[in-house]
């Protein structure tokens, strides 16, 4: 069982899966804007033998570049800190990105730390302290586990395949796609702009049957897996600024392995750019901040140097911690 559960979250190890608000911002946050947002990225546990010599946790550079491209800076968050230390970090960052990977979503250190931040984010948003979370691939799966309080994932294999999105009616009134030009909305449903690298996911049936999930999230798109299962591919929180995509917006601009079906067309690049900007704009509404410039400077990803990994993984560059 634990083996199955483990593999359930594999989002293709070498690509590894590179998101509530109150519907309305509080009047305070509506006026105040933070133009120096910092997005936290939880480091991911290394599960791949070829990566082990470099460190215990990592972040693919593609997620960092993606976040930076939206106008934010990145703070890597290690998995070895105490709850008090995470509570302290939460007061300083303006949003959180759960990246892809291959770890147990209930028992791993990654899941433990994610749960701490998820609870802090729920409480913060409840008291009008806007704080967005984005989950990509396994990060989206993780959000569904956190919201449902149980692991409801099933085989929805779509591995190394780019797909158009089957948008729901709700997608057209969503926050995530609100700024998209009509031409891109059309391309999204006709062109293969979304890269999929996963074995497991949430079926549409499970989503619709589970009250916790469908009360919490709006379903924005679905897709069909290799086994015919319809799976949830894009969700956004109804009340909370929490967003999830089963696919990988960051690969469209920042990953180039020739063996992998990364969408690189002009529309694919535009999709990736607009989503990065959307999420960072959500982060601008958070007024969390560091205590002083020295603390901020020493917390950022700029203190680390990525390693060239194009000759032993599907990534070009990785940060190790
Ligand atoms: C698109 O989603 C609808 C339900 O929203 C479903 O009935 C239809 O079969 C789906 N089509 C594809 C091609 O996924
Ligand atoms: C998932 O379904 C696909 C397609 O039917 C199949 O090839 C694969 O072996 C299944 N994976 C697991 C872990 O059951
Ligand atoms: C990958 O390339 C780096 C630098 O070019 C080199 O040091 C390293 O040994 C290579 N790794 C493999 C597995 O080929």
Automatic annotation (TrEMBL):
Can you say where in the cell this protein is located?
A: Secreted, Extracellular space
* Record flagged with keyword Hydrolase: yes
Task: Kindly report, in one word, the top-level EC class recorded for this enzyme.
Answer: hydrolase
Its BP terms in the Gene Ontology are: tetrahydrofolylpolyglutamate metabolic process
EC number of the protein: 3.4.19.9
Which PANTHER family does this chain map to?
FOLATE GAMMA-GLUTAMYL HYDROLASE, PROTEASE FAMILY C26 GAMMA-GLUTAMYL HYDROLASE
Q: What is this protein called?
A: folate gamma-glutamyl hydrolase
Species this protein is from: Lates calcarifer
Q: Which gene encodes it?
A: LOC108882243
């Amino acid at each position: 069982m634990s083996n199955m559960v483990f593999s359930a979250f594999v989002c293709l190890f070498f690509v590894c899966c590179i998101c509530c608000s109150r519907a309305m911002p509080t009047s305070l946050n509506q006026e105040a804007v933070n133009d120096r947002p910092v997005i936290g990225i939880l480091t991911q546990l290394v599960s791949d033998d070829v990566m082990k010599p470099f460190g215990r946790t990592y972040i693919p550079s593609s997620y960092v570049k993606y976040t930076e491209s939206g106008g934010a800076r990145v703070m890597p968050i290690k998995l070895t800190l105490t709850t008090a230390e995470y509570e302290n970090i939460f007061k300083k960052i303006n949003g959180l990105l759960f990246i892809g990977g291959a770890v147990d979503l209930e028992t791993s250190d990654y899941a433990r730390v994610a749960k701490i931040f998820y609870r802090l984010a729920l409480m913060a948003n409840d008291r009008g302290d806007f704080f967005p979370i984005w989950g990509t691939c396994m990060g989206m799966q993780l959000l569904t586990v956190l919201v449902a309080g149980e692991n409801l994932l099933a085989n929805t294999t779509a591995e190394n395949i780019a797909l158009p999105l089957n948008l729901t009616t709700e997608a057209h009134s969503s926050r995530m796609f609100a700024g998209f030009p009509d031409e891109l909305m059309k391309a999204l449903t006709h062109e293969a702009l979304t890269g999929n690298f996963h074995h497991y996911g949430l079926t549409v049936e499970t989503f619709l049957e589970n009250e916790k999930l469908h009360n919490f999230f709006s379903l924005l798109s679905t897709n069909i897996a290799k086994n015919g299962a319809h799976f949830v591919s894009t969700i956004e929180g109804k009340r909370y600024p929490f967003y999830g995509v089963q696919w990988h917006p960051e690969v469209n601009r920042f990953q180039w392995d020739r063996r992998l079906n990364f969408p690189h067309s002009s529309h694919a690049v535009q999709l990736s750019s607009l989503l990065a900007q959307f999420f960072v704009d959500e982060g601008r509404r958070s007024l969390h901040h560091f205590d002083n410039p020295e603390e901020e400077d020493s917390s950022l990803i700029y203190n680390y140097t990525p390693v060239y990994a194009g000759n032993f993984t599907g990534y070009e560059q990785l940060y190790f911690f």
